[in-house]
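Entry 14. Ran structure prediction on the chain below.
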Amino acid sequence: MSWHQLELTLRPEQLEATSALLFELGCAGIEEAVAPSELRSSWEPAVEGAPTQARVLRASFADPDRGAVDAALAATRPLTSAWSELPDVDWSEAWKAQHPPVQLTPRLVVAPPWNAPAGALVIEPGQGFGTGQHPTTGMVARALEELAPGAATLLDVGCGSGVLALAGARLGLRARGVDVQAEAVAEARANAERNGLAVSFSTTPLAELTVGAELVLANVHAEVLVALALDLIRLSERWLVLGGVLADREAQVTRAFGALEPLAREVEGRWVCLCYRRRVR
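Output, structure tokens:
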């Protein structure tokens, strides 16, 4: 038997119908992930200029009629489509190998349930909402670990799978997380239960939050950070940590957060993490 993989890049609204169609066409399994240029978070407010969170579907077929599958999918108009032949391997084990433990900070390891060392934060890889592998997650986690001793409360904006909020709870903070996607919130709640941590997760829009936190984290796109700047500043009682900033967008972000005092800056590859605090009057 010959196995083949069809990789599709899709808009979020295309996922459900396309997945159903793939199974109707004989797909044996589907892996979903965030498109490579995207971050772990699914935070996408309805603001002009906010980026679209493209998704990748990888569908496995046994001896498919590629032409027939392509013809059936033509009406869905995927952003990209590519076939590849798969080697004969145990795919369940191969998928697991893509999710090794991640040492986010000297004190924090994030790991999947099947390969979790003692003391690790256990995160189930699921709908592409983040398992700690993106470099920005590590940068924000290091800032969190440094600032946590001086804070009591934490708000994680665009929480995804909840990695950062759960890390804050591990450090003793009263943590909350918000995300616009209900699927992300459900995943974060499951991860909180899995780790025995009491963290509140919701889809409450940022503009509707009336209670801030001493430490606010936002690991999302630069364009979204700028769009949310006023609310992020309003809700940050002491410190604000911004991740997800590409180096060529840093100036745009720093202008938007000029009301706060720059505290620290970390660069890893093409990504920048910015830390701010409220100005002392």
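The chain is about 30% helix and 30% strand. Will compare against last week's run tomorrow.
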